[in-house]
From TrEMBL:
It comes from Tritrichomonas foetus. One of its GO terms (biological process) is calcium-mediated signaling. This is Calcineurin B-like protein 8. Residues 67-102, 104-139, 149-184 form the EF-hand domain. Keywords: Calcium, Repeat. Transmembrane segments: none annotated. Gene3D superfamilies: EF-hand. PROSITE patterns: EF_HAND_1, EF_HAND_2.
C-alpha cells in the first residue's frame, strides 16, 4: 500500500492498534492492510453527516447510494448487531466481510437471514418474508407484483424451504436452501474490491 498505508495508520484511532487490526483480520476475510483502508472509508462515511465515527442510517444510505426504504433499513440493521441504531467500525468490518466474494455460503446466509428475520426470534415467518419482498420491490420500478402474487411467492418459498412444516424457516432450513440455490443470497453480494480500488 506504500505511502497510502503509512497515512492510514496515522488516521487510525488509538483503539485500533496493530494487534486489534490483526484480531479483526482473523475474524474476517480481510488483511490488516485492507482493514486500514476500510477504516479510512469508514471515517469518510461516518463523518459525512456528523463527526461521531459512527454510521447513521442516513450516512449508510448515502454511502451505498441506496434509496431510503424499509429494505435498506433492514440491511442496516443486519450490520448494526448491537441494536444501537448506529454502525461502529467493528460492525462495519464484520458486515462487509459477510458480503465479500470470499465469504462462505454459510456466512452470507447468516447475514441474509438477519435481514429477513425482522423480529430476531431465529425463524423467518411468512409475514416477515412478505414484508421483505414488499420492501425490496418498493424501490424497483421494473418489477410490479400484486399482493396476491407476493403471497404466491411467499407460499411457494415456504413450500420449498420449510422442510419440517412448522410455519417458520429456521437458519438450518435457510442454509440448506442457499446451498441448493445460492441466488437467494443476492442481498449480500457487494463488490468490496471497488472500495479498495477507490482508495488506492
Amino acid at each position: 500500500m506504500g505511502a497510502h498505508g503509512s497515512k492510514s495508520k496515522k488516521g487510525l484511532k488509538k483503539k485500533y492498534t496493530k494487534s486489534s487490526l490483526e484480531s479483526l483480520a482473523k475474524m474476517t476475510h480481510f488483511t490488516p492492510e485492507q482493514i486500514e483502508t476500510l477504516y479510512i472509508h469508514f471515517k469518510s462515511i461516518s463523518n459525512s453527516d456528523s463527526s461521531d465515527n459512527k454510521i447513521s442510517v442516513k450516512e449508510f444510505e448515502q454511502a451505498l447510494g441506496l434509496p431510503s426504504t424499509a429494505f435498506t433499513r433492514r440491511i442496516f440493521s443486519a450490520f448494526d448487531t448491537d441494536g444501537s441504531a448506529e454502525i461502529e467500525f467493528d460492525e462495519f468490518i464484520l458486515g462487509l466481510s459477510a458480503m465479500s466474494p470470499q465469504a462462505t455460503i454459510e456466512e452470507k446466509a447468516q447475514f441474509c437471514f438477519g435481514v429477513y428475520d425482522i423480529d430476531g426470534n431465529g425463524s423467518i415467518e411468512k409475514e416477515e418474508l412478505k414484508q421483505i419482498l414488499t420492501f425490496s420491490l418498493s424501490g424497483n420500478e421494473s418489477v410490479h407484483l400484486s399482493e396476491a402474487q407476493i403471497n404466491a411467492v411467499v407460499d411457494s418459498t415456504f413450500k420449498q424451504m420449510d422442510s419440517d412444516g412448522n410455519g417458520g424457516i429456521s437458519f438450518d432450513e435457510f442454509l440448506a436452501a442457499a446451498n441448493k440455490n445460492p441466488a437467494i443470497l443476492s442481498c449480500v453480494n457487494l463488490k468490496v474490491d471497488d472500495i479498495f480500488n477507490k482508495n488506492k
